[in-house]
Amino acid sequence: MTPQATIADRRVSASVVVAAPPAEVFALLANPHRHHEFDGSGTVQAAVSGPEKLVLGSTFGMQMKIKVGYRVTNEVVEFEQDRLIAWCHPAKARWRYELEPVGTGTRITETFDYARSPVRWGIALMKMPQQNAKSIRDTLRKLQEIFGTA
Hints:
The protein has 150 residues and is of the alpha+beta class. The chain contains 4 helices and 8 strands, in the order ββααββββββαα. Helices cover 25% and strands 41% of the residues. A hairpin with a 5-residue loop joins strand 6 (84-88) and strand 7 (94-102). The chain is globular, with a radius of gyration of 14 Å.
């Protein structure tokens, strides 16, 4: 099933249910060295710095590429073990993953939240919410491939 993304109130969000427990999904999301495995945008190349397991306040650097290569440093700004993890980059846009047990599986909700960004007008002007809607759908499909569908 193809996840449907919604764009409202400077947030882009979509959900899927996978056939794995929250702890297993969270272990993947909390390891920045594995983010390239599920990135649906095609921009995450590799982790260049950071711990093997993220916690609140962790920073991690990512090698990225949108036409040209660049590096971005993210900080974990929300964290609840096996339930919630979110990080933001210098523009203060936030990538958030919420996990909810559903039977023997997990509902994963991914959200791109740019409401707090000082450059939110530029994010909207560059049509990033629409691009991120596609990226979120593709990321969630990859997570379904990794963990199976419930």
